[in-house]
Design brief:
Shape: globular
Number of helices: 11
Largest sheet: 9 strands, mixed
Strand order of the largest sheet: 14-13-12-11-7-10-9-8-15
Number of domains: 2
Number of strands: 15
CATH class of the largest domain: Alpha Beta
CATH architecture of the largest domain: 2-Layer Sandwich
Bound molecules: nicotinamide-adenine-dinucleotide
Order of helices and strands: EHEHEHEHEHEHEHHEHEEEEEEHHE
Strand content: 15-25%
Amino acid sequence: MDKVRVGIIGAGKIARNHAKVGFPAAKAEVVAAADINEAALNALGDEFGIAQRYTDWKDLVARDDIDAVSVALPPFLHAPATLDALKAGKHVLCEKPMSCTVAEAEAMVQAAKEADRKLMVYYRRRLLNATQKAKAIIESGALGTVYFARTAGYRFRGRPNIDMKNLSPWFNDPAKAGGGVLFDLGGYALDQLCYLLGWPALKSVCAQTYREIDREATEKRGFNVDEFVVGMIRFRNGATAWLEGASAVNMDPRQAGGTKLFGDKAGLDAGSMTLYKPDAEGQMQAETIDVPPQEQGANHSAICVEFVNAILKDRPLTVCTGEEGLYVQRILCGMQESAEKGCEVEV
Ligand SMILES: NC(=O)c1ccc[n+]([C@@H]2O[C@H](COP(=O)([O-])OP(=O)(O)OC[C@H]3O[C@@H](n4cnc5c(N)ncnc54)[C@H](O)[C@@H]3O)[C@@H](O)[C@H]2O)c1
């Protein structure tokens, strides 16, 4: 195979990014698209010259001349579309979050194994140059044993379809989105954090979610998901990690703090890319780490490039595998369960 032929399932906002940036960068050919909304389907098809258009993704995956699909649907449809595509022998690049439940994510991983096809999850923070640099520093042993990590990101007012008008209403329906900020922004953050930690075996999680700001008014506008999450993960190796995420909060997002790793030899602020360690006198030394510049959005295309190259070279994916997506899904769903039950849950 010298070219990968792709079908895009879902013709909404992020699908445009796949068609415009990701697959062209990967030198793949987008030959088909599917969406139940014909206007959206035709808009995407016309803009990117996609000739084959379907209102049912089953017709798209049935085509013999398509090697792979990207699934750019709301989360509750990620599993059904992915399973149909894998069963039809297509490789799948699935948008985040991988699914709404752990059982769905497990079924996706199992189906990929059975079909011997690639399954990749679009957690694009992974291919930021800063994330890659942080990973190299951790692997060099410079931090020593990392016993704690934390990740925190806020939007001051960034609730989909409430404050951010360009996003679809399904983001605020738990049955379609799986959850609110935990599933949406928490997925990226946890994927990055657990990648940096090397996917240690999970023990338990504990979390609380909130929907407090303008609650009555936003509920009337269909906002029915969490807007703030705080959670902790216990790993079997004794390390812990902390997550804080907000799509609305009365705090300065610039002070949320980003991702930080605490080791016994040094600590790394993976946002400012600063390494903290003691000098010979035990005083704090702060070393700024150089990160190669990266064009905005380049991590988007890097995901598609990796997906397509793995197919062309018939080699395993190096990042964002289905198994890693499943690991993140266990945390997301565990945190959601913990918040509902008000107690720590095993994962
Ligand atoms: N990786 C990223 O940076 C990023 C950014 C934004 C969104 N996302 C994710 O991408 C996915 C899609 O988000 P979006 O903002 O593009 O949503 P969107 O609402 O703009 O697009 C979803 C499309 O799916 C279509 N659809 C719904 N039900 C369908 C069905 N049964 N069959 C076929 N088509 C159907 C809709 O008509 C719509 O066009 C979500 O999982 C979201 O979390 C990822």
